[in-house]
Amino acid sequence: MRERTVRLQYGSRIEAVYVLGTHLWTDVYSAAPAGAQTFSLKRTEHVQVEVVRDGQAEEVATNGKQRWPLSPSTTLRLSMTQASAEASSDKVTVSYYEKEGSTPIDQAGLFLTAIEISLDVDADRDGVVEKNNPRKASWSWGPDGQGAILLVNCDRDTPLLPMEDCSDQKVYSKEDPFFGQRYVHILGRKKLYHVVKYTGGVAELLFFVEGLRFPDESFSGMVSIHASLLESLAEEIPLTPIFTDTVTFRIAPWVMTPNTLPPVSVFVCSMKDNYLFLKEIKNLVEKANCELKVCFQYMNRGDRWIQDEIEFGYIEAPHKGFPVVLDSPRDGNLKDFPIKQLLGPDFGYVTREPLFEPVTSLDSFGNLEVSPPVTVNGKTYPLGRILIGSSFPLSGGRRMTKVVRDFLQAQQVQAPVELYSDWLTVGHVDEFMTFVPIPGTKQFRMLMASTSACYKLFREKQKEGHGEAVMFKGLGGMSSKRITINKILSNESLVQENLYFQRCLDWNRDILKRELGLSEQDIIDLPALFKMDENRQAQAYFPNMVNMIVLNKDLGIPKPFGPQVEEQCCLEAHVRGLLEPLGLSCTFLDDISAYHKYLGEVHCGTNVRRKPFAFKWWHMEP
Fold it and tell me: What is the per-residue pLDDT for 394?
């Protein structure tokens, strides 16, 4: 209950505006004339008055017969039950007496005009603005949380603009596109207040609010708006505040979508050399029952790495939600694609560009992944946790740029985890891990590249008498040498390199188990081999199967061209044996000439927009 003080003065009438739902306090003692020792009160019927003495309140009848002794600890508390029909139509009269006198020695009058004013939002998060919610000024997380939610107006409803709608100060209608109706811009970064004349009677003003920027390191995402009632005393005298109502919004965070959510659209670039790959992807996408969106050469300008340029996510409030693409600072030849092809009505855009830091390969979004929902030591992450690759602590290697890391951290709902990816030439987390759903359940498995699993499999095949089984069969260009299981197992420097790479993988495995609350049973090892480049960093020796595309139960896996044992690739057979019993369907895609030879695989060359979580981000407690 908000409270305000009004000063009485004997021998005069004071006029005051009363706002319904508040209390007015007035000090009868300091307003008394000399010699006064008692007082009585009269009130009109819509005013309620309590005499408060030493903290004890006593209600006052309308007849004004009762008297109270004057003392410094006596005050009056006033409230009203309804808005006044006319100005100053309600009043309270205080009569002051000498000790024995029956006639007052003086009087003080308080003339009241009761008005109702409230600033209203959807504080209970049901999609509808409700009247005067008592918790509208604060914001809390969780299923019982309260407080309004605001979306960043980062889509583009007017095709004439080259950027998001929040980059200008015009709103054409509540849906944003042009309907001829221009809304007046009343508040913003350069205009912090707006005056509305009080006209009397019943009136409602509708304000539309748009978020201008996402939470970030320097902005918590909390926004408060105040409506203040100001009173005019006289010409040339500044207005005085008599009431303020406050509402608080939180700007909705950008939420990333993991592999376990259903796919909506698959994006792939059309290149001069990937015609066959496109055909295979098209078949896979049809099988998975989602849509294929091809980025043609005029738009990709020879850049095939669509995973690295962008990351899909979404924003959501109780009344609305839409997809939002996060554009990486990588800015290859695909850099115009997100703005020219994705940004539009109900499809938003956001980016973070470093001002001073150099952009490295680790700023590409093959290095940005998110886990499915997990529980870690009793703490739940219902939207999963973001995973980014980094340098080894203290090594001074490559690290994702600070502006992007800060942005991801500031969203609060998918607490990021840093992994070690700088041991790889390209340095992306999608080169050594991914997640697959277990169809028909809420569970998932984490797949990890494993050099020890590869050596174990090859040794088993050697033992079974398949040491001369040949890799890369039918790929004349891959190698002029005949590469067999025996040759790989006897190549001592390759063995040593892959022992080191396995240690790097295990370092990440331990972080992931700890930060995602996983056990060994949750992890499946996929055979992989790496070779060292001239900087002693790792490149895939054969197509890296963990770098796959996940479309519900359908997996598009890089075809490894492994040793042929009894007419089939033993790597493919091994991976099928691991994944198909879970209900997953494995399709091996030949990406060698279009992707693998350029140090990427299927995941690097594709991107997937997925359905949002059913879980509402505001129901969690970060």
Answer: 62
